[in-house]
Automatic annotation (TrEMBL):
<feature type="domain" description="ELP1 alpha-solenoid">
    <location>
        <begin position="712"/>
        <end position="794"/>
    </location>
</feature>
<feature type="compositionally biased region" description="Low complexity">
    <location>
        <begin position="1189"/>
        <end position="1202"/>
    </location>
</feature>
<feature type="domain" description="ELP1 first N-terminal beta-propeller">
    <location>
        <begin position="1"/>
        <end position="382"/>
    </location>
</feature>
<dbReference type="InterPro" id="IPR006849">
    <property type="entry name" value="Elp1"/>
</dbReference>
<dbReference type="GO" id="GO:0000049">
    <property type="term" value="F:tRNA binding"/>
</dbReference>
<dbReference type="InterPro" id="IPR056169">
    <property type="entry name" value="HB_ELP1"/>
</dbReference>
<protein>
    <recommendedName>
        <fullName>Elongator complex protein 1</fullName>
    </recommendedName>
</protein>
<comment type="similarity">
    <text>Belongs to the ELP1/IKA1 family.</text>
</comment>
<feature type="domain" description="ELP1 alpha-solenoid">
    <location>
        <begin position="823"/>
        <end position="934"/>
    </location>
</feature>
<dbReference type="Pfam" id="PF23925">
    <property type="entry name" value="A-sol_ELP1"/>
</dbReference>
<dbReference type="Pfam" id="PF23797">
    <property type="entry name" value="Beta-prop_ELP1_2nd"/>
</dbReference>
<dbReference type="InterPro" id="IPR056165">
    <property type="entry name" value="Beta-prop_ELP1_2nd"/>
</dbReference>
<dbReference type="GO" id="GO:0042802">
    <property type="term" value="F:identical protein binding"/>
</dbReference>
<dbReference type="InterPro" id="IPR056167">
    <property type="entry name" value="A-sol_ELP1"/>
</dbReference>
<comment type="function">
    <text>Component of the elongator complex which is required for multiple tRNA modifications, including mcm5U (5-methoxycarbonylmethyl uridine), mcm5s2U (5-methoxycarbonylmethyl-2-thiouridine), and ncm5U (5-carbamoylmethyl uridine). The elongator complex catalyzes formation of carboxymethyluridine in the wobble base at position 34 in tRNAs.</text>
</comment>
<feature type="domain" description="ELP1 N-terminal second beta-propeller">
    <location>
        <begin position="423"/>
        <end position="688"/>
    </location>
</feature>
<dbReference type="InterPro" id="IPR056164">
    <property type="entry name" value="Beta-prop_ELP1_1st"/>
</dbReference>
Amino acid sequence: MRNLIVLNRGHVNPESLTIPDLHPVDAVFDPVSDSVTFLLTDVDGSHIEIQQFGKSGNVTVLASFPSTSRVLSFAHFADVAQLVFVFCNGDILTATYAEGGQVDDAIIELVGSIDCGIISAQWSHDEETLAVVTNEMKLLLLSRMFEPITEKQLNPDDVKITDSKHVSVGWGKKETQFKGRGFKAREREAEALKHAGLHDSQGELRDPTVNEIERGVLSLMDDQSVRISWRGDCEYFSVSSVEPVIVEDTGEMYDRRVIRVFSREGKLDSVNEPVDGLEHNLSWKPQGLLIASTQRHTDDDGDEVLDLVFYERNGLRHGQFNTRLDPTAEVIQGLEWNCDSEILLFKLQDRVQLWTTKNYHWYLKQELHFPDAVSFVKFHPEKPLHLMVGTASGVIQIIDLAYKITTGPTTELGSGDLGMTLVVDGSTVKITPLAIANVPPPISFRELEIEGNVTDVAISKSNTKYAAITSTSDLVFSELSIEEMKSGKHPQPMSHVSANTFMNQIEVAKQVAFINDTFVAIAIEAPGYSRIAIFEVDDIKNPTFNETVEPSAKLVLMKSRADYGAIVFQTVDCRVVQLDSTQNFQPITTFPQLCHSFDVVVLENGDFFTYGISRNGKLFANELEVCSGVTSLKVTDSHVLFTTVQAKLCLVHLGSNQFDAISNLLTNSEAADHDERIRQIERGSILVNAMPSKYSVVLEAPRGNLETICPRIMVLSAIRKFIAHKQFKQAFLVCRTHRIDLDILHDYDPELFFNNIKLFVDQIEKVEYLDLFVSCLHEEDTTATKYKDTINQITDGVGALQLENTPTPTADSGVIHRIIKNKPETYAENSKITKICTAILGVLLEPDYKTKYIQTILTAYACQKPPALNAALELISTLSGEEAESAVIHLCFLQDVLLLYKTALGMYDVKLTLAIAQQSQMDPKEYLPFLQNLHAQPEIRRKFLIDDYLKRYESALKWLFELGPDCAGEFDEYVISHELYTVALRMYEGDQARSRVMLRLYARYLSESSLFSDAAVAFEYLGDISDAIDNYSLAKKWKQALSLCKDDQKEEVAVRLVDSLTQDHRYSEAAEIQLHYLNNIDEAVKLYCKNYHYDTAILVASTASDKQHLIESIDGQLDEGFGTIAELLADCNGQMNSQLRRLRELRAKKSEDPYSFYGVPDNDLDTPDDVSIAASETSTTPSFFTRYTGKTSGTAKTGASRRTTKNRKREERKRAKGRKGTIYEEEYLIKSVGRLVERLDQTEPDAVLLIEGLIRRGKKQQALEIQRRWGELVSFIRENIDEIHDMSERDRERVDDNGVVYLIDIIPKPVIKDFPKVRMLDY
């Protein structure tokens, strides 16, 4: 869909500086110094002068010397400052010059000579090999140092023909050769005619499915020359020459044009198949497998045609196309490809043609005429759209081209937004309004045929007027309305303006643009200046030349402003200027670099925004560079669209400064996937057109096919506009078509939605549409997540972006959530869905709407959170006949049928329940008997059975209660089976007898449930003392139990209580029972000592009759307590020393060799050459994550699908164990010290009581030992606690199941308390 336009035609007229009357005959580009090197000589070729023409216009003479022959090949090796000349007489000369030196300093050297002379020579593209064909038809390959690589005779025997029809395959007989699938049948038919005595009118046997084999007859316009062409990678080259061919069977001899393909070493690879009329032209596509040539022949219709034909490297034909030239008069003198193989150039007598191809069709995109004959044409080796053309008069034109996609307006919504696209193809302008008919090229919707080849074309604001420039600078105007175009009419030329009416002979019209529908501007170029001619085209049949204006600098590129209110153009000094219909110039901006494509937009406030793309892919917004790697650009009424080399389509809000965010997103593919402003496209695709009213963009893939997409940002922008203007139906239809969540109709402006809910219902109107809206609602605010509006988003990087589908972090983000099957659904308070459904129901339940929208009302009830199924079923119960049946079917579609079945049953409506059951998958054998039984029961019994079936046991118990005393036994059994004791107590609150029965049942239940304390209170209240004592005893409430016992029961109960309290380590309470109720002083003292209550034990012993024995018993208990505490202190001290030592070892190892400690693979290990070190799916080599996760690099990938609770529990167990050598060991050691401190704090009160008891019993040394060792341990811990808790951030790193590194919480440092010392021991 791209056209080619001329940006600039620079004119250079080299003049000889050493010898007069020399003129240029050849030139080459020098990409190193960005200059052009000219070869000047006279008519006889007696002298040669080489000039270098710089970009700034400076001229340097590199060499000047006499010659005796015509130059065949000329090359400039700028890297070694050397010029190489190949002459017809066989001489090969080099001229080595000194940069910045004088012309006389050049060293001229004859490096070789071929006596027989040279007929053709061509350097390879890498300038390393010279291919030469001599007059004796020998092929020579020379290196850059002119050393021979190979010498080969071009032998006519390379082409052998067995007869005039077929080429021999080299084996078998002629009779057995395959001649096509239809040949045998045709042979039998001819044989039958012969035996019947009839004449075969079809002549020679020939299979129509096989192309007729051609002889390779020479074209009458073949110049008999030899041509050489190299492939782009320089691995192969081709040679085209005329060879005498002998048919072996007949001995006939004739000349044939032969194309041989040789390898870089000179080995013959293939010879082309014979083609009649093949000519001398030869050019190998640099980036392809095709060799181009020309063929002059008669086509199947009998017309003489001049085709361009293609060969593959194996010599077989691979397509052709008609050059549309006059085969009787025109001669293509040469073919040239540009460096990226996109453009094929035809060199004709006085002009050149530029062709491109897409979708297997060749387009003539540009034809350049010259006042004199064209002598040579050269493309730049690195710039694909840069070429120079030399003419016979000595003037060399250096031409800059650019691609241009000619489109109609893209900022005019409605009738002007048709996606109009114009494609130039020779004398035809292909017209396609993509909004009406998305016709794939090379087909088009309509065509405009013009006399002469078109070089540029433009369309007006209304998409009805056309203006075209021909290659002879004539102007053609046409007009056709859209309605006429839709009816099948094609536009026709309506007026023609000859070039000589508004230009002189040295000027050329190169570009055209419209101002609204009224004026047409023509960019005219001449050597040294440019101007703009303006025509008034109100009457398209009589265009009027208005005025000519001349910009201050040379014009490069001109186009209509985005709104067609004026034209804008870029000058050679990168300035962008506006020219309106009153011929007033207004400077807009200056780009940092010259741009080959740009657009100018005027905002509502009058500000100009100019966007341009330079040749190296930089995107500029006014004077600023905002992005790089850009391939195409388009603007609409609200967005700037551009594609990048990363195959991304980017859309930026018009006038915003979001380009930095876009650039950052382009480097972060994961973030870009969730941003509405970036979309992935096919690699190499470019923008063709944009249609904002259709929310669509048309892209062209590299192979030429079109793709229409609807970027989300354009769709959402249109939806937001519709909502803001209360056009809810249009917004709904767009959401439905483009699969946008319908929540946006509410979420974009909730207040507007609720204030216009009735208007919303009236506009949507269709029941199906309202159902779809209500049933597709979600709780999330889509405008804050997936459809976040980016128009006001100003960011500096990816981190500040609120990306689509990115969950907002919450306080419990680190909590592990388990999926529990059959878990009841929970509903949020103030549900958005419920609010919307309630608002819609408020409208639909009005009398004017209710009858029509019964289905939508049911949908709204069913979609509430939680669903209002009771209300929906009550509504259905008011309906009858088919309406009720359809309502049931609809509700069953929206909700779980079993849930509806139970809800209807809970309403005690058996008929409605039956209707719902019939819509389910339930077995009628199950539900019909059940419902029939219910229908036959009395009302209260029916309700009891229903509630019991639905497990609404409290409600069922209520119906049993209403059945009266006759069902008392059933009532009690139901209470027991469903544990409804509290409900029953509530019901019998006024009936004392039944209440005591229920309470006794409840007390038994509590006792059986091990709730002994509550059961004991209930039994005591009921007067059941025995059960009360047993339950108080089991509850270990010894005071209440003993208070209810009789004298003869107390000892037995007391013994049981002592045993149970001792088992629970409640020694003090057991001691009191032994002392006061069992009078066992000895056991009481022992129990007090076990609880470290030595003071109480001594007190009891002092009042006893056997005092001495008890004191000895206390001393033994003191010694036992001393041993326990001393052992504890020794264990803690040993643990503290060992763990501190291990921590120091770990940290020393970490500082000495962190790579080994953290598990990073050693890159210095020698790896065998034949062993791959790349990671694979099944690899089990330990990786960096192994020490963190326990997984190998192989299981890390497959384990991604096993993120279960079991895995997490395993991880917690590994952390708790702190196995030696794992990353968890340090964390485990630190926490272990914390647990040691907690243990000391818990034991401290017992130690204080022990010391006091030891002192009272005269065991001062043991008390001093406990106090001293405890103090030393506390001091040791306090001195090292800071070192122990010195855990670096690197040590706190962990890796989760997703491979994301996170930090564990800092382990809190424990508080080290001082041990309370006894003053008499503190010395």
